């Protein structure tokens, strides 16, 4: 495994807040999420930015982040009990791999 240039993987979802909040503003912007969501575990099971931003102010604060951990767990559980590969596209229809098959 090459470590040089490999992005840091957060140890836990909670720690991931600071990993994704790259400008240290205390909130996660959509751009920060898009650029860094792969650092907080399997992106397949990540909630979308819109889902996490429950009050719709276009940023995710620490409370919203904490709530999102439960969403991620629920998505993972749902995927494990479902057949087929609907999960990534169900939660991330904007992803290129989901659009090219349509
Ligand atoms: Ca930020
Ligand atoms: Ca918010």
Q: What does this protein look like?
A:
The protein is mostly helical. The chain has a single domain (13-99), classed as Orthogonal Bundle (Recoverin, domain 1), CATH 1.10.238. It starts with 12 loop residues before the first helix and ends with a helix. The chain has helices spanning 13-20, 30-36, 49-52, 62-81, 86-91, 96-99, and strands at residues 28-29, 59-60. The mean pLDDT is 81. The protein is globular. The protein binds calcium ion (CA) (2 copies). One calcium ion binds at residues 21, 23, 25, 27-29, 32.
Q: Care to give the gist of this entry?
A:
It comes from Methyloceanibacter superfactus. The chain has 102 residues and is mostly helical. Helix content is 48%, strand content 4%.
List keywords for this structure.
single chain, 102 residues, mainly alpha, Recoverin, domain 1, two-stranded antiparallel sheet, 6 helices, 2 strands, 48% helix, globular, binds calcium ion
Helix and strand arrangement:
Elements: H1 13-20, E1 28-29, H2 30-36, H3 49-52, E2 59-60, H4 62-81, H5 86-91, H6 96-99
Antiparallel strand pairs: 1-2
Bound molecules: calcium ion (2 copies).
